[in-house]
Design brief:
Elements (H helix, E strand, L loop, with lengths): L9 H9 L7 H11 L4 E4 L6 H16 L8 E4 L3 H14 L7 E4 L6 H9 L3 E4 L1 H9 L10 E4 L2 H6 L3 H9 L6 E6 L4 H10 L4 E4 L10 E7 L5 H12 L4 E4 L3 H13 L4 E4 L5 H13 L4 E4 L14 E4 L6 H8 L9 E7 L4 H11 L4 E2 L55
Parallel strand pairs: 1-6, 1-7, 2-4, 2-5, 3-4, 5-6, 8-13, 8-14, 9-11, 9-12, 10-11, 12-13
Helix pairs in contact: 2-3, 3-4, 6-8
């Protein structure tokens, strides 16, 4: 199947050709015709599968067919993070380059006035984070009364981050009659409940099983004492010759400390987290993409919304407290059919977190020590166990993972050799 068989207009096909897309991905093949037909949609697809194009392309076509441009937005895309909003905005501009449509992106962390100016000039498609959008509504600089299409992107992440009340406020500002599209990297029970109150007779698409990780990502783990994690990471940079690695930590302070340590080891690094200004976050990401820094150290603010072409390596310096976040972290590599690797450094106090991740994935993760960095036989008494809250979401709701194979630290698999926002 090709893109021209999906019913897209010539202007969009020209843009797709410019982007060097050859064949639509499964989510694009299934979603584009349904959206063009005007159906509400509940779609689940793992990250890196072309989900953004699956809704942006048909929405642009519907806007071009629904009438002439107006001052008020006719389509609204809500995203949980600034980075994802910016990424979607880039795709909208690229796909709509040959269409007479106007779009803009609004999110927090930057000045309001440039956004106000863009809204006053008139916008067909608005991409926004919930909080900043409500700020504009409160100042009467954004009018949502003529929105004909609503898209919730990464809806599960918005729920995790506590945006449900903002979303409900926004829904009250929209026309009752509209097309609703709900896209998510995971297809959780919470998402289904949200969909029941939002979507009207929706078409349902799920192109990968719940919480599936990218098939092209090779996952592994190294057991190590917590006190030696930084030294092990620096050792791996030198041994493996890594030049572009996305490293995840749990905390902002931990990210800053790790950047300092890597710098002392001669490894260029930058941090990206919620305490950084949007300008600093954008600069760090741009430097990473250009290769000016070898390591981008991030909290889970970067687990969604970072689109880095051919990112070869993700490292979990610390495992996330919520198992589902592991899926989104490693989804930054192995995108669009490319290969990738995800490595976790696991200390004694994280062994239960690793078990929870394996239960969620219903698969084992290959575990092997690094010579010279083997963990102690018994955990240091000073190390607390963060897994007590391992399956609780951002609002304290319990997360249950399906039963599956679990292997304890140091136990090798027979297959080992075969293969908010902060």
């Amino acid at each position: 199947m090709t893109f021209d068989s999906l019913g897209l207009e010539a202007e969009l096909l020209r843009a797709v050709a410019t982007e060097r897309y050859t064949r639509p991905t499964p989510i694009q093949r299934q979603a584009i015709p349904e959206i063009l037909a005007g159906h509400d949609l509940l779609a689940g697809a793992q990250t890196g599968t072309g989900k953004t194009a699956a809704f942006v392309l048909p929405v642009l076509q519907r806007l071009s067919k629904l009438g002439h441009p107006q001052r008020q937005p006719r389509a609204l895309i809500l995203t949980p993070t600034r980075e994802l909003a910016a990424q979607v905005g880039e795709r909208v501009r690229a796909y709509g380059v040959h269409l007479p449509l106007r779009s803009t992106v609004i999110y927090g962390g930057v000045g309001m006035q440039p956004q106000v100016n863009a809204l006053q000039r008139g916008v067909d498609l608005l991409i926004a984070t919930p909080g900043r959008l409500l700020d504009h509504v409160g100042r009467h600089t954004a009018d949502l009364s003529r929105v004909e299409i609503l898209i919730l992107d990464e809806a599960d992440r918005m729920l995790d981050m506590g945006f449900i009340h903002d979303i409900r406020r926004i829904l009250q500002l929209l026309p009752k009659q509209r097309q609703n599209l709900l896209f998510s990297a995971t297809y959780t029970d919470e998402i289904r409940r949200l969909a029941e109150g939002l979507l009207q007779r929706p078409k349902q698409i799920e192109v990968a099983r719940r919480n599936a990780t990218a098939d092209m990502v090779t996952q592994s783990a190294h057991p190590v004492d917590k006190a030696r994690k930084r030294d092990l990471l620096a050792h791996l940079f030198q041994r493996e010759g890594w030049h572009q690695v996305l490293v995840f930590t749990r905390t902002k302070a931990g990210a800053n400390r790790l950047v300092e340590h890597l710098g002392r080891e001669g490894i260029s690094a930058a941090a990206i987290h919620g305490n950084k200004s949007q300008t600093a976050r954008t600069r760090a990401l741009d430097d990473f993409k250009r290769g000016s820094v070898r390591a981008l150290v991030a909290t889970d603010i970067a687990a969604r919304g970072l689109d880095i072409v051919n990112l070869p390596q993700v490292v979990n310096f610390e495992l996330p407290n919520v198992a589902e976040d592991y899926v989104h972290r490693i989804g930054r590599t192995g995108r669009a059919g490319a290969g990738g690797r995800a490595l976790s450094l696991v200390s004694h106090d994280e062994r239960k977190l690793l078990e929870g991740i394996q239960r969620l994935l219903r698969r084992e993760i290959a575990i092997s020590p690094v010579v010279g960095f083997e963990p102690s036989l018994t955990p240091p008494p000073s190390e607390p166990d963060p897994s007590l809250g391992a399956h609780r979401g951002a609002r304290g709701t319990k997360r249950r993972s399906p039963a599956g194979p679990v292997r304890h630290m140091g136990q090798r698999s027979s297959r080992d050799g075969q293969r908010r926002a902060s």
